[in-house]
């Protein structure tokens, strides 16, 4: 697994790293047919700098949990919009390195190319791991879109001018959509297909829901 050669000391250095790495994520024409899918999320302890990074690996067909790794510690970077990766990468990378069941696809609670420097958390994780990676966010961060139909599977392009950054995807009929963008080695059509398949019970992918719960439970135990 690749490493960032030097951890940024401040906001300007972090932005410079994103700019320097933004050309590395690549799409692929190969279809995503994952056997195992990992959800990645970081939980925060209100009022402190304690964090818990959770990686939960699911069987893509049955959605059974086949592996879970938690990494607790202290946040090593301040919260700055657009630089969330530098706050969340340390516990997530540590957790990924300890998995017993290797995932075929990573799904992040965040953004891929739908990012001011086209290098969100999903891109960063994808480049470091060289695994197919998708970002699924709860709210928009960048871009504009047309209203999305109310039926499950309806979508609208998420755009910055003429550039398509991702899709606004309705995963449950009549429920708020999610914001899907690719990170690395994934195409947008395939990403949305996989996300829809993982949203069998709720608005968010089951990968995200279980990683979120695992991280919050880890903080509650300490």
Strand adjacency order, main sheet: 3-2-1-4-5-8-7-6
- Total discrete domains: 1
Using the coordinates shown, work out and report the CATH topology.
Answer: archaeoglobus fulgidus dsm 4304 fold
Mean pLDDT over the full residue set: 94
CATH superfamily: archaeoglobus fulgidus dsm 4304 superfamily
Q: Work out the helix count.
A: 5
What is the CATH class?
A: Alpha Beta
**Low-confidence spans:** none
Judged by helices, strands and strand pairing, the structural class is: alpha+beta
Net shape = globular
- In the CATH hierarchy, the architecture is 2-Layer Sandwich
Largest beta sheet, briefly? 8 strands, mixed
Q: How many angstroms separate the termini?
A: 29 Å
Helix content: 25-40%
Beta-strand percent range = 25-35%
- Helix and strand pattern: HEEEHEHEEEEHH
The count of DSSP E runs of length 2 or more, i.e. the number of strands, is 8
Task: Please tell me how large the radius of gyration is.
Answer: 16 Å
């Amino acid at each position: 697994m690749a490493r960032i050669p030097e951890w940024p000391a401040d906001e300007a250095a972090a932005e410079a790293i994103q700019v320097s790495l933004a050309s590395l994520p690549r799409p692929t024409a190969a279809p995503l047919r994952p056997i195992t899918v990992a959800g990645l999320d970081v939980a925060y302890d209100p009022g402190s700098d304690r964090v818990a990074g959770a990686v939960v690996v699911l069987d893509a067909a049955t959605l059974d949990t086949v592996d879970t790794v938690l990494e607790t510690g202290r946040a090593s970077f301040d919260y700055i919009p657009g630089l969330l990766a530098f706050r969340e990468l340390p516990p997530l990378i540590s957790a990924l390195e300890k998995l017993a069941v290797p995932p075929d696809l990573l799904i992040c609670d965040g953004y891929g190319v739908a990012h001011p420097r086209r290098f969100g958390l999903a891109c960063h994780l994808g480049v470091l791991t060289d695994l197919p990676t998708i970002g699924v966010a709860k709210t928009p961060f960048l871009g504009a879109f047309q209203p999305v139909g109310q039926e499950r599977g309806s979508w609208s392009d998420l755009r910055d001018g003429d550039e398509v950054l991702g899709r606004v995807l309705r995963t449950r009929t009549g429920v708020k959509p999610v914001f899907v963008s690719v990170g690395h080695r994934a195409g947008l059509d395939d990403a949305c297909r996989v996300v829809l398949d993982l949203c069998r019970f709720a608005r968010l992918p089951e990968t995200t829901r279980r990683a979120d719960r695992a991280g919050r439970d880890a903080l509650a135990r300490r």
